[in-house]
Amino acid sequence: HPVGIGLPLSAEPPPWQRVPGWHPQLLRPGSDGYSAEAVAALHPDLILAGGDYYVDREYRELSAIAPTTAFETAPDEEPWQTTTRQVGRALGQPARAEQLVSDVEGRIRAATAAHPDLAGAEFVIALAHRPGGLGGIRTPRDITARTLAQFGMRFSPAAENLPGGGFSAQLSAENLGRIATGVLVTAYPNPALRAEMERSPVFRGLAAVRRGGYLPVAGDSWLALREPGVLGIPQLIDRVLPELAAAAAHREEVAAALRRAGCAHLVLRTDSDWIADVVRFVMARKRGWSGGGAA
């Protein structure tokens, strides 16, 4: 049983990490990660740190205390399947880990089929860490982005083009318009920031917000998105996915309304030559109006 549990994002473990009769020590990271002294005081036989953002800095000290797992690619980018299999090997139960992965992947496939509005819906993941601005995740390799992609969603090319070199781009209020997407998932680690953000005229003017594609998340819902795994993903499916599908559904509602009005509908993408797309669209419409054909 666990003697300690790391809590980088919350004050208490989420419900799916609680077991009656287990009372692990709650550990919180500082600016440089977890305290090796605090971990050593718990006398662990194994340290599972595959999801620890700071483990590359901590590994030498932690592995001197007990065998220690770590991410194999980059922090916050490891697929949950990889982490699960890693834990299975460390515990000497690789077959059990493989079965858990298979079971959860089956639930993902069933949930994807039950929510067809998610298919192809472009999304951006934003974090409200401070008043007036947002941090936009810039890479589809991010663990939350990877997980949403497994439900058929598509990471917005606009997010990949956000400025900066880190995993997220910090956008001030006047630059929020750079968040071009159909679905905007916005996390509020501090729920008090939500009301201020939603009062911002620039934020309210974002297309995703105007059209119903905005999904605010906090608390356990954010943990299920940010720390996906064989325990967290079922919670994500039950609690977050229906709201995410409702946010994605606005795309088809808008398209259907335009069709009913007899309007032409052009979907522009930021990862293509959208100016050329507009020119081709207009020329095709003009040919249709004049009854002409392509030369």
Outline:
The chain is α/β, with parallel strands linked by helices.
- Overall pLDDT score: 87
Distance between the termini: 73 Å
Total of helices: 12
Largest sheet: 6 strands, mixed
Order of helices and strands: EEHHHHEEHEHEEHHHEHHH
Q: How many strand segments? A: 8
- Counting helices, strands and paired strands, the structural category is alpha/beta
User: Beta fraction of the residues?
Assistant: 5-15%
Per the principal axes of the C-alpha atoms, what is the gross shape? Answer: globular
Radius of gyration over C-alpha positions, nearest whole angstrom = 22 Å
Low-confidence stretches: 268-272
DSSP helix fraction = 40-55%
Question: How would you explain this protein's 3D organization?
Answer:
This protein has 295 residues and is α/β, with parallel strands linked by helices. Helices cover 44% and strands 11% of the residues. It is built from 12 helices and 8 strands. It has helices at 36-40, 55-65, 80-90, 94-114, 143-149, 157-160, 192-199, 201-204, 207-210, 219-226, 232-260, 274-290; strands at residues 4-6, 25-27, 122-127, 134-137, 154-155, 168-171, 183-187, 214-217. Strands 3, 4, 5, 6, 7 and 8 form a 6-stranded mixed beta sheet that branches. A two-stranded parallel sheet has the order 1-2. The longest helix is centred in the C-terminal third of the chain and has 29 residues, at 232-260.
